[in-house]
Specification:
The chain is of the alpha+beta class and about 160 residues long. The protein has two domains: about 40 residues; about 110 residues, Nuclear Transport Factor 2, Chain: A, CATH 3.10.450. Strand 3 and strand 4 form a beta hairpin.
Length: about 160
């Protein structure tokens, strides 16, 4: 191939790469605007949920904690079952002495509801190891409800 044909071919490739980059940028911008605030969980709201759940857990206020659960979650676990499970958590881990919000993950959408998992580093009185508190929340009609919670003292998010 001669020099002129090579230069033309390189010019065409450069134009195609520039168009591809422009289209990718436009698509990413549209997707981020379409996803909006629902794709990311507000850290202040996450901290409030963590504080509230930890307070109720530490006070052993199972009834108030049960009231935070979504109707779908309450179908899966009864109030007495929750009290029994939380009693077992208290035996294993004691109280949550301190916790700090780390991050959240959007788990997905189903039936018009969005599901999130919130992660907290925690320190519990019953273990000498780092712990993780995980809260699962469901958002329906701009209202959040608890869907699940777990404490794991054998892992840390650091």
């Amino acid at each position: 191939m001669n020099n002129k044909a090579t230069n033309v071919l390189l010019g065409v490739i450069l134009v195609l790469v520039a168009l591809n980059l422009a289209m990718t940028t436009i698509l990413i911008d549209r997707q981020s605007k379409a996803g909006g605030a629902n794709e990311r969980f507000d850290p202040e709201v996450a901290r409030d949920w963590g504080n509230n759940v930890v307070d109720l857990y530490n006070r052993r206020d199972h009834e108030a904690l049960y009231a935070l659960f979504s109707p779908q979650a309450r179908i899966k676990i009864g109030q007495q079952q929750l009290a029994d499970q939380l009693g077992k958590l208290h035996q294993l881990f004691g109280v949550v002495e301190d916790h700090a919000y780390v991050n959240s993950v959007k788990l997905g959408e189903k039936g018009g509801a969005q599901y999130f998992q919130l992660f907290f580093n925690a320190r519990v009185s019953g273990k000498n190891s780092p712990a993780t508190l995980k809260l699962s929340l469901v958002e329906t009609n701009d209202k959040f409800s608890l869907y699940g919670l777990s404490i794991n003292a054998s892992e840390s998010l650091d």
